[in-house]
Design a protein that fits this description.
The chain folds into two domains: 130 residues, NAD(P)-binding Rossmann-like Domain (Rossmann fold, 3-Layer(aba) Sandwich); 140 residues, no CATH class. The strands form two sheets. It has a seven-stranded parallel β-sheet, with helices on both faces. Helix content is 44%, strand content 15%. The radius of gyration is 20 Å and the shape is globular.
């Protein structure tokens, strides 16, 4: 029986991964979670993992398992101890990078939902060991196969404020930004969706995964089309699918899938579809799109500044648009920096965070 290590088991990707694992009889060797110990204990009871890791030592006694590791080092130790050849990385933010590096160093395949791993350190990661489980990158993979492509497109929902006026957006609160019009996600990814930083990250991911900077994004508000491939013969093909991560997860864990995972898209029910441009006035981060694709090593700067900017917005230390101002300022300040090794990535990440917090 095949087995997996699941990082981020209590988030939406983790929960869906466990559904797919159960469906296909895939053993869950290890679970890694943050602070939702109640759900983790339910998962432990159902899936009987050999190892468990959590974020904080203070929660260890609450976990119903005889072998519990804690913190960043605990996660890396768990990956090293595991016999599974597949690690599903659904951790959020920069915290997901070290586990991706550890797993790939050990030759394990990584089913990757942690986009920051590639954004921050794509040039130091063996892409042959990465299987994306973002719906957009899965859609691109599904479309391309071996045919020659001229350009790739991913779609964006437009985020929580896509219908808001610019003046109203500037007064938006952290809780306002969490009201996504299409689905319920974690705090960080929902904020990143509202600023379009999430889509900028996905362009960088696509660059590393598919080896091209001929990649762009457009807004498709119904989130039915996730990706489009423009082929050199002049045709364009789109990937339609419901908003459900089980399909990319199933392909990542099982390989080829030939049975229904999702209900078919109801074309008549969809009605009209519309593609809209991503406007810099509404999404200021988009002004660096071309530059970051040409200089992808600066992803570490964007990611670190963005994580600190989100904290500032949450703590009411900056406005909604202030987040983009913080990121763009750091991007300009560190424009000349380039990592030559993973140790440089760690140093740059710390320098950017210190710079942002000293503003």
């Amino acid at each position: 029986m095949s087995s997996i290590v699941l990082l981020g088991s209590t988030g939406s990707i983790g929960v869906n991964t466990l559904i797919i694992a159960k469906r296909y009889g895939i053993r869950v060797e290890a679970l890694v979670a943050g602070t939702n110990i109640e759900l983790l204990n339910q998962q432990i009871k159902e899936h009987q993992p050999r190892y468990v890791a959590i974020a904080h030592e203070a929660d260890r006694a609450k976990v119903n398992h005889p072998f519990v590791l804690c913190g960043k080092e605990g996660i890396l130790e768990l990956i090293e101890m595991s016999k599974s050849t597949t690690v599903v990385n659904a951790l959020v933010g920069y915290a997901g990078l070290a586990p991706t590096l550890k797993a790939t160093e050990l030759g394990k395949r990584v089913a990757l939902a942690n986009k920051e791993s590639l954004v921050v350190a794509g040039e130091f990661i063996d892409m042959s060991l990465i299987t994306p489980i973002d719906s957009e990158h899965f859609g691109l993979w599904y479309l391309i196969h071996a045919r020659p492509v001229s350009k790739l497109y991913i779609t964006a929902s437009g985020g929580a404020f896509r219908e808001w006026g610019l003046e109203q957006m500037n007064k938006a609160t952290f809780s306002d930004a969490l009201n996504h019009p299409n689905w319920s996600m974690g705090d960080k990814i929902t904020i990143d969706s509202a600023t379009m930083t999430n889509k900028l990250f996905e362009l960088l991911e696509a660059k590393w995964l598919f080896g091209t900077d001929q990649i762009d994004a457009v807004i498709e508000r119904k989130s039915i089309i996730h990706a489009l491939a423009e082929f050199k013969d002049g045709s364009t093909t789109a990937h339609f699918a419901g908003v459900d991560m089980k399909l990319p997860i199933a392909f990542a864990l099982k390989g080829e899938i030939t049975e229904p995972i999702l209900p078919p898209v109801d074309l008549l029910g969809i009605g009209g579809l519309e593609f809209l441009p991503i406007e810099v006035a509404r999404y200021p981060i988009w002004q660096i799109k071309e530059h970051i694709l040409a200089h992808p090593y600066l992803g570490v700067v964007i990611n670190a500044a963005n994580e600190e900017a989100i904290h500032a917005f949450r703590d009411e230390k900056c406005s909604f648009f202030g987040m983009s101002e913080i990121v763009l300022d750091a991007y300009k300040h560190f424009e000349a920096i380039k990592a030559n090794a993973i140790d440089d990535i760690i140093r740059i990440d710390a320098e950017v965070r210190a710079y942002v917090n000293a503003r």
